[in-house]
Specification:
This protein is of the alpha+beta class and about 120 residues long. It contains 4 helices and 5 strands; from the N terminus they run H-H-E-E-H-E-E-E-H. About 40% of the residues lie in helices and about 15% in strands.
Length: about 120
């Protein structure tokens, strides 16, 4: 996946799955539930909550916590931008050299997180 594809990816199922796999380190078990690779399940019940960080700010902050805990980023900047700018209304910068934009804070966080983890691949 290219940088261009990430910065243009819309919120939704594909992005949520990439975040789950590439950032959180999860995979789907045989029943279609997220599993962490050690037989543990994330703190969620599938019938109540689907991991949707690109649209759910609470799930997006869990992405921030995971990425910062593993990469030691001390500063995370998520801010509202001038709506006349073409790149999106929200900006996220993890302090790791990766900044992304989006129509929502959640989307900006997810794009920046994917840029950060995919840079090392």
């Amino acid at each position: 996946m290219t940088r261009e594809e990430i910065i243009n990816m819309p919120a939704g199922y594909e992005m949520n799955n990439l975040i789950g796999q590439r950032v959180m380190g999860w995979h789907f078990d045989a029943d279609g539930n997220w599993e962490d690779g050690h037989g543990e399940y994330p703190d969620m019940r599938w019938w109540e909550y689907r991991f949707s960080p690109s649209t759910d700010i609470e799930a997006a902050w869990s992405v921030v916590e995971k990425l910062c805990n593993e990469n030691g980023c001390d500063v995370v900047k998520v801010c509202k931008r001038d709506p006349e700018l073409l790149r999106g209304e929200w900006s996220c910068n993890f302090g790791l050299g990766f900044e992304a934009f989006g129509e929502s804070a959640s989307l900006a966080i997810c794009r920046a997180a994917l840029l950060a983890v995919m840079d090392g691949e």
